[in-house]
Amino acid sequence: MFTQSPRPIRSVLVANRGEIAMRVLRTCKHLGLRGIAVYSDADANALHVRTADAATRIGPAPARESYLDIGAIIAAAQRMEADAIHPGYGFLSENAEFARACDAAGLIFIGPSAEAVASMGSKISSKRIAEATGVPTVPGYHGNAQDEATLLSEAKRIGFPVLIKASAGGGGRGMRLVEHAADFAAALDAARKEAQSAFGDASILLEKFIRNPRHLEVQLAGDRQGNLVHLFERDCSVQRNNQKVLEEAPAPNLPEIVRQRLFDAALKLGRKIGYDSAGTVEFIMEAGDDQPYFLEMNTRLQVEHPVTEAITGIDLVEWQIRAAAGEALPLQQAQIRQSGHAIEARITAERVDMGFQPVTGRLECVVAPRDLRFDTGVADGAEISPYYDSMIAKLVAAGRNRGSCLARLEAGLNELTLLGLSSNQLFLRDAVRHPLFVEGRATTRFIETAFPGGWKIDAGELRLLRAAATAAWLVKEPSATELENWTNPWLRQRPVRVTASARAARATVMLNDEYGTAEIELRYGRDGVEAMMDGEIIRLGPVARSGGSLAITPESVAETLPVSSDGGRICITRHGLAISADLVLKSEAQRASDADARSGNRVDAPLHGLITQIHVVVGDRVEAGMAVVQMEAMKLVHTLPAPRAGHVTGIRQAVGDIVPAGTTLIEIDVIEEKEIS
């Protein structure tokens, strides 16, 4: 399609992974371009690798040795005879050095010029350019003097509270809120260290803290022929840890005068730097005010670009490729129209109830909801590794208006099936139901306002799902003969047998899942299944397993829950809440516990992750609480203690191993109290 363009493109190497790699490859296929994937050792079997026309390895699992290795990416493109490189988002997408390296190697960088990337790459320099262009910025300090005395003086001039922010990056890293001057020095030191670690640059800037802000942004698109247009605005106010969770277009409850100020400021800034690709100008504005302030410019495709595509009908990746090939934008500003509303929900592998702690592990089953856009880089059997971020997918709903869009998104979040590990799916459902979001009044403080004390799982929903998991474990999928004789308990081969079908079968089961343990008494009779748990009775009604699903009838309403099993483990989900439960009859659990007590004790992995340190060797004496192993999962460090005093008798794993939750790491021969005394 672009063979006759000023800069011909026949093949595109996607220098990224996961969902965004799949997104770019989809447009390449649509345009008839050869799509080339790259992969680290951790991604050798990933969906984007299997989908591409060709794929090549670029290095070990750590990003710095693969997806962030400029030399490896350039060499891969040359080896695969690619004409162009699309950086996606994250990794090298806003790295001016990478853009220059592409130019030097004769490769087309599908993005803006290296000069534009460099000008917006530093928050300090970008704010200076914005001010020089007449674009309002948040009152603050972004000067060259970085000594503590100058910064404290400027903070007092701005007026507390102030935000300390890393100049070289985002995502909440290197950011500290300071309420009082007495706390400034300590916060500055912490922000500098974090910025240096994350971005290799300890320089910071100061901003007046806006207490209840909306996060607004404008999508720009330019080309190499001097054209520049906007594709309207988005609202990305719902955030956790300064990272976006829900995004929508257009922004709700936004006065037209504010909307026009956003467009004018974004276009003015884009023209100033000669912007020639897709990019986003971000703004912050106090809720209820009418003056937006420039925040930063992202010189790349945004994660949330699908909502803009949904309301405009424009493929932004295609426009990026067209611009990189030297073609003119297909539409002028007056020809671009928006219609309807769209909302995107980022699906992440996280324990929201534990402060959005990332989780890792295997996704047993992934089933997208019908009639909604589902951008993902995972499929059945995919491993969510500790090396990269926690995003699994993006669910995008569109409708004629915001109300219909919200209804479709909520239905899609209920319908989406993710079996095998925890996600934020149920939290997102609760978030889009909350009045603040429904009424379009969310700010960046939405989560702390809507869920004071943090979001928690509804206890009743968890009990019902645990009861269903127990029923799924006890009730195997029936054969044709059993279906004909389903009332005869002798023909049901499960761990419970009864002497008369008129009398309920009973079993007491111990369940262990991500949220803790539970003792469940299950009763199975003519009227179906009921469970006793935590002093509550949960009635499931008639229960049957068939074809990877469990049919239940709680409150006389028929439901079908996705379920998978592997030995004593059941993975099951309902309305966005998913658990992976290990189950055992209480009598067997007691025997196993007694055996453990006789043979010693052990340290097990609490979650899927990477072993980074082992502090003991066989024969070492350990005390209760002493650190014996260190693990890392998605950049979070977990130190595992010895549960009891004793001697190390076995080390079952090694540093560098990636292990699933529940894996035995260290075995300890426990010293009984009388021995210690």
Structural write-up:
- The chain has 677 residues and is of the alpha+beta class.
- It has 6 domains: 11-110, Rossmann fold, CATH 3.40.50.20; 126-137 and 214-339, D-amino Acid Aminotransferase, Chain A, domain 1; 139-209, Dna Ligase, domain 1 (2-Layer Sandwich), CATH 3.30.1490; 343-437, ATP-grasp fold, B domain (D-amino Acid Aminotransferase, Chain A, domain 1); 463-586, 2-Layer Sandwich (Glycoprotein, Type 4 Pilin), CATH 3.30.700.30; 600-676, Beta Barrel (OB fold (Dihydrolipoamide Acetyltransferase, E2P)).
- 28% of the residues lie in helices and 32% in strands.
- It contains 19 helices and 40 strands.
- The strands form 9 sheets. It has a 9-stranded antiparallel beta sheet. It has an 8-stranded antiparallel beta sheet with strand order 14-13-10-11-12-15-22-20, with helices on both faces.
- Strand 24 and strand 25 (516-525) form a beta hairpin.
- The longest helix is centred in the middle third of the chain and has 17 residues, at 256-272.
- Mean pLDDT is 90; it is low at 478-502.
